[in-house]
Design a protein that fits this description.
single chain, 277 residues, alpha/beta, TIM Barrel, seven-stranded parallel sheet, two-stranded antiparallel sheet, globular, binds zinc ion
Length: 277
């Protein structure tokens, strides 16, 4: 059993390819399940903020079609692969109920929540915050992630590694930085929300600094130690990226003490043994 649980579609307007191509790629790889989680539009911005800032999500008017397309494909492909239907939802403190209301109108298997934006520093994406002091940003980021973990609206927290892929590590405060990650995983262990392992985070780790002090290694070691439940995710924005890096990433996770992964069926959590296909 293997599932890629974070895949985009052209509905978000910054991903390429048809939904069928993503599914065909997953079947060719021998995956048993593919979970689509395209970005919900930036529901927490006012109309004038929406005009000023990049909306990386599905246009509001396209949301019913996103679900209709996936429901049809789920039925058409059911002999070859299971398709689950999700959304990637930005977490902004104070807007949890708005997000929950929007989602309640659709046949959702699961929702992943992401911290792409820290309102304290403005409505930009994290990759545009590089002028800020890293420790301050990390502190605000992980505090927001902890609120997201505990709010009970989402099934999965996506790519906790996003922050260190975009904001440089502050080596002078190495201990504090590492502790923020460990502490957040400890909060996840006791929260209703599970943790996504994102292949982009794994790839960044292997490319940049694959030693024991790497944040990805710190995060996954703590996940293994605390038996935190996980999903596996490529975060594919094009069909060829489905299942990216899964084989080496799974081998690495097993070394870190992670031996299972999860999927969802209408929000019901299912646990599976973690093995390389
Ligand atoms: Zn994301
Ligand atoms: Zn994504």
């Amino acid at each position: 059993m293997l599932a890629d649980y974070h895949v985009h579609t052209a509905y978000c307007r910054h991903a390429k390819g048809s939904i069928n191509e993503y599914i065909e790629k997953a079947i060719a790889l021998g995956l048993n399940e593919i979970g689509f989680t395209d970005h919900l539009g930036r529901y927490y911005l006012t109309p004038s903020q929406k005009r000023k800032h990049w909306d990386w999500g599905i246009k509001d008017g396209d949301l019913p079609r996103y679900f209709d397309d996936l429901c049809t494909l789920k039925e058409n492909y059911k002999k070859d692969i299971r398709i689950s239907i999700g959304l990637e939802v930005d977490y902004v403190k104070g807007t949890e109920q708005t997000a929950a209301e929007i989602m309640s109108a659709y046949p959702l298997d699961y929702a992943i929540c992401s911290v792409h934006c820290l309102p304290y520093f403005g409505w930009k994406h994290i990759f545009q915050y590089s002028d800020q002091d890293p420790l301050t940003l990390f502190t605000e980021y992980f505090s927001t992630v902890k609120d997201a973990l505990n709010c009970g609206v989402f099934q999965v927290i996506a790519h906790m590694d996003l922050i260190w892929r975009y904001v440089p590590w502050d080596w002078e405060n190495d201990t504090q930085m590492s502790e923020l990650i460990r502490n957040t995983v400890q909060v996840a262990a006791k929260s209703p929300t599970i943790v996504e392992i994102n292949a982009n985070g794994y790839h960044w780790f292997t490319e940049n600094n694959p030693d024991d002090n790497n944040p990805f290694a710190i995060m996954t070691e703590e996940i293994g130690k605390r038996n935190v439940l996980i999903t596996l995710a490529s975060d594919a924005h094009e069909p060829s990226s489905v299942g990216n890096h899964f084989t080496p990433m799974i081998k690495f996770l097993k070394k870190q003490g992670v031996h299972s992964f999860c999927t969802f069926d209408k929000k019901k959590l299912l646990k599976h043994d973690l093995n390389v296909k």
